[in-house]
């Protein structure tokens, strides 16, 4: 039910209040829940249009503890968290402990899996959204000083990654997840020679990275 008068009352009584988009009017920020929100961050490769805090629970059926719960995969969360944070949003991940305050082992495994990934790639999120640098809008980009971070929330299709229209030679490229050096070239792809030279990452262990979200750090 729309109740703009309630929003007006809040503004009058507390002008500094921050209001989400779950009731009276669109509010100050978006709160996509369980991926159900038309304002979901980075759905089209663009930066979040306004402040966003997405929220999701590790359990498919409940936000609290539930016996015999079904759980989302770690890979599912890496995808959603990466897209949201790379667009400048925030992500709230919920777990439901049992009556004794114990987090069920499957839920704990999810949280630990997300944490292990995040610790390795965190610097890519201590950066600003940089949408529009790549032709492929399914590759979110963040930037900090002379470093670009190319995110790959979708599974890699091959051992190469073309970063059109970038054609500047980097000093170094690193797979942030492992610290491994990544080869690169500015040579045109054989069947796209008419496009000229473009930066291309090569020799990527795509199959080994299918269960994670790879992030490549490019230093210029």
Defining traits:
220 residues, alpha+beta, Immunoglobulin-like, 3 domains, 6-stranded antiparallel beta sheet, 3-stranded antiparallel beta sheet
Explain what you see.
The protein has about 220 residues and is of the alpha+beta class. The protein has 3 domains: about 25 residues, no CATH class; about 100 residues, no CATH class; about 90 residues, Immunoglobulin-like, CATH 2.60.40. It contains 3 helices and 11 strands; from the N terminus they run αβαβαβββββββββ. It has a 6-stranded antiparallel β-sheet. A 3-stranded antiparallel β-sheet has the order 6-10-9, with no helix packed on it. α2 crosses α3.
Number of domains: 3
Radius of gyration: 20 Å
Biggest sheet architecture: 6 strands, antiparallel
Structural class by SSE content: alpha+beta
Our estimate of the beta-strand percent is 15-25%
Strand order of the largest sheet: 3-4-5-11-7-8
Query: What overall geometry do the principal axes of the alpha carbons give?
Result: globular
Uncertain segments are: 40-47
The total beta strand count reads 11
Distance between the termini: 52 Å
What level of helicity do the residues show? 10-25%
Question: Treating each run of at least 4 consecutive H or I residues as one helix, how many helices?
Answer: 3
Mean pLDDT: 91
H and E string: HEHEHEEEEEEEEE
């Amino acid at each position: 039910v729309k109740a703009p008068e309630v929003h007006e009352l809040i503004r009058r009584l507390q002008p500094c209040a921050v209001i989400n988009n779950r009731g009276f009017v669109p509010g100050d920020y978006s709160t996509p829940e369980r991926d159900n929100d038309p304002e979901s961050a980075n759905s089209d490769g663009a930066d979040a249009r306004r402040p966003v805090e997405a929220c999701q629970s590790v359990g498919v059926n409940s936000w609290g503890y539930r016996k015999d719960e079904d759980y989302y995969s770690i890979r599912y969360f890496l995808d959603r968290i990466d897209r949201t944070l790379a667009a400048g949003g925030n992500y709230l991940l919920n777990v439901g402990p049992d009556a004794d305050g114990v987090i069920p082992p499957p839920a704990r495994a999810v949280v630990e899996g997300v944490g292990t990934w995040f610790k390795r790639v965190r610097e890519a999120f201590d950066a600003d959204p940089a949408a529009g640098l790549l032709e492929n809008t399914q590759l979110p980009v963040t930037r900090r000083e002379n470093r670009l971070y190319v995110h790959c929330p979708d599974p890699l299709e091959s051992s190469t990654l073309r970063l059109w229209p970038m054609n500047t030679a980097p000093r170094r490229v690193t797979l942030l997840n492992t610290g491994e050096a990544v080869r690169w070239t500015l040579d045109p792809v054989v069947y796209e020679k008419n496009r000229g030279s473009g930066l291309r990452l090569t020799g990527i262990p795509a199959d080994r990275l299918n269960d994670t979200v790879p992030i490549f750090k490019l230093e210029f």
